């Protein structure tokens, strides 16, 4: 199976990169642009066939290494092979 | 004193620390490769600056899982003196030995310049040679030094005098204008509640000899050595 993991700064935490891109987009004339948040996208291939244990593994990876939960939150999708 | 300097792939201030400790201060500095598993015989440990593991994922995030880190955590846990400089500070945050996390600098730039910091707590093993409120000029060199923590933790840091250094101007004024990177409450360095672990973003090892026309960094290293002379770290049995 494959997992797609998205990591972003928590709401309320200043995202200087997102703000810089927001301003650039607005300068380019995209007037409808509201808040922009930057994050990371990580793809992980997993040699597991059981969806439940696969999900537990991904969650543990996020908590232990992939995200710093002091400042970041994570979401993931698991795609069956 | 024997001071262990942990060397990670990408560390680049390890030799500066060793130079100051041994050549300037006459102490014994020992490099400890991150794959080692023991800090036995060390009186203090330094996690040096640099770009461990290329800063991949997050600064300090991968170094935090190096084999040596278990020994460092154990050492800190029994009161051993640990100094984290710049990338070393980031590792201490990732380890959870110090609270909080680092965000990208407010203006997104890598900042490399001399900066003034004010000693907010001179009663620590890292600042006992300083006067309260003393102003030090030290170089900073980082892209992720924008310290963040939640309001509850910030209050605790303030209440327990755990904020050891704050960015200020030449006169010691602490304002948003004297904050180079957006760090919460102008924080440049904090200690743990027990007081034996300090993390700071400025680089004392880069300003610790007459030849460089700035010896302010020596206040920190001299404080450490004095503290060790009066109270040696208990060795494991």
Could you explain the architecture of this structure?
With 81 residues, chain A is an alpha+beta fold. Chain A contains two helices and three strands, in the order E-H-E-H-E. Chain A has helices at 16-27, 51-66, and strands at residues 2-9, 39-45, 72-79. In chain A, strands 2-1-3 form a three-stranded antiparallel sheet, covered by helices on one side. Chain B is globular and about 45 Å long. Chain B is built from five helices and eleven strands. The mean pLDDT of chain B is 95. Chain B has helices at 14-24, 68-77, 87-95, 151-159, 218-230; strands at residues 2-7, 28-33, 44-47, 81-85, 101-103, 111-119, 135-142, 146-148, 163-168, 187-191, 197-200. In chain B, the strands form two sheets. A nine-stranded mixed sheet of chain B has the order 2-1-3-4-11-10-9-6-7, sandwiched between helices. In chain B, strands 5-8 form a two-stranded antiparallel sheet. Chain B has one domain: 3-Layer(aba) Sandwich (Rossmann fold), CATH 3.40.50.880. Classes of the chains: A alpha+beta (81), B alpha/beta (237). The interface between A and B is medium-sized, with 12 and 21 residues.
CA-based shape of chain A: elongated
Number of strands of chain B: 11
Approximately how much beta-strand content do the residues of chain B carry? 15-25%
Strand content range of chain A: 25-35%
Domain unit count of chain B? 1
Query: How many strand units of chain A?
Result: 3
What string, H for helix and E for strand, traces the elements of chain B in order?
EHEEHEHEEEEHEEEH
Which homologous superfamily in CATH is the superfamily of chain B?
Class I glutamine amidotransferase (GATase) domain
Number of helices of chain A: 2
Largest interface: A-B, 12 and 21 residues
User: From the alpha-carbon coordinates, what is the Rg of chain A to the nearest angstrom?
Assistant: 16 Å
- Report mean pLDDT of chain A, rounded to a whole number: 93
At the third CATH level, what is the topology name of chain B?
A: Rossmann fold
The total tally of domains of chain A equals 1
Largest sheet of chain B: 9 strands, mixed
- Here the CATH topology of chain A equals Mth169, Chain: A
The biggest sheet of chain A amounts to: 3 strands, antiparallel
Number of helices of chain B: 5
> What is the name of the CATH architecture of chain B?
3-Layer(aba) Sandwich
């Amino acid at each position: 199976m494959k997992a797609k993991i998205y990591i972003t700064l928590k709401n309320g935490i200043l995202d200087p990169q997102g703000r810089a891109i927001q301003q650039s987009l607005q300068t380019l004339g995209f007037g409808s642009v509201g808040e922009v948040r930057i994050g990371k996208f990580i793809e992980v291939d997993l040699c597991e066939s059981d969806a439940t244990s696969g999900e537990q593994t991904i969650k543990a990876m996020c908590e232990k290494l992939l995200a710093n939960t002091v400042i970041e939150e994570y979401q993931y999708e698991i795609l069956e092979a | 004193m024997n001071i262990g300097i942990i060397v990670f792939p990408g560390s680049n201030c390890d030799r500066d620390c060793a130079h100051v400790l041994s050549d300037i201060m006459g102490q014994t500095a020992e490099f400890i490769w991150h794959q080692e598993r023991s800090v036995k015989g060390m009186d203090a440990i330094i996690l040096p600056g640099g770009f461990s593991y290329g800063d991949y994922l997050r600064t300090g995030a991968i170094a935090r899982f190096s084999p040596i880190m278990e020994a460092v955590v154990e050492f800190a846990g029994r009161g051993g003196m640990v100094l984290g400089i710049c990338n070393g500070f980031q590792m201490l945050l990732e380890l959870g030995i110090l609270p909080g996390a680092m965000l990208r600098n407010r203006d997104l730039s890598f900042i490399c310049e001399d900066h003034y910091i004010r000693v907010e707590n001179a009663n620590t093993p890292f600042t006992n040679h300083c006067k309260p409120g003393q102003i030090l000029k030290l170089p900073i060199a980082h892209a992720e030094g924008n310290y963040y923590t939640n309001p509850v933790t910030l209050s605790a840091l303030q209440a327990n005098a755990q904020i050891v250094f704050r960015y200020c101007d030449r006169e010691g004024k602490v304002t948003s204008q004297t904050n180079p990177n957006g760090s919460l409450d102008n924080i440049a360095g904090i200690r743990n509640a027990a007081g034996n672990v300090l993390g700071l973003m400025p680089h004392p090892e880069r300003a610790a000899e007459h030849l460089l026309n700035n010896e302010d960094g020596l206040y920190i290293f001299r404080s450490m050595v004095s503290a060790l002379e009066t109270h040696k770290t208990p060795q494991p049995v």
